[in-house]
Amino acid sequence: MKRKKLKTLWLGATGCIAFLAGVQSVSVFSAMTAADAPDTVKLDSLQQYYEPVEFNHQTHTDMSAGDCTICHHHTTGQPPTNKFCLHCHNGQKTVSTVSCRDCHSAKPFDASVIQEQQKDLTRYHIDKPGLKVAYHITCVGCHQTTGGPTGCQDCHKMTEAGKKLFDVKK
Q: Residue 8 — very low, low, confident or very high, per pLDDT cuts 50/70/90?
């Protein structure tokens, strides 16, 4: 009886948090579909050096015929399939997020991230790349095969801080 109450409380709290955070309501027991996804996604984890990228999610969803797993390792309500994810998530029945930044750190070499990784010495830095690498592996790799833009500033506009950091003269 106690376990059932805890499960009910957890499910209720999860729903409240998702509602308060402005997250689209997705049942814990059902998979998210391409129709549930936003039309655009703002990629802004490096906004100190680059202006945010307004990623046209709808266009990419249309190109993939609604198959979310072409870009994401999984979709909500499904288990991860990526071989690196399975090191930690093997046997997990479902996942609740497809957001890259929920698993891939924007600061992969930050002391707190390295300390967390050192708790399991069977993992290496290649198991889970940082957010920037995760985006680029997926995006640039696909763009190279489909003829999409691959130049840095095709997608990113540098801020003044970025120009200074990378010693851009223009």
A: very low
